[in-house]
Amino acid sequence: PPPQAICCRDHQHCCPRGYTCNVTAQSCEKLLAPTPLLPAPAPPRRAPAPPRRAPASPSAPLRAAGSEPGAAVPCDAARSCRGGQRCCRSRGGSWGCCPFAQGSCCSDGRHCCPGGSRCTGGGWGCSPQRWDLP
Question: Where is this chain compositionally biased, Pro residues type (predicted)?
Answer without folding.
Answer: 36-53
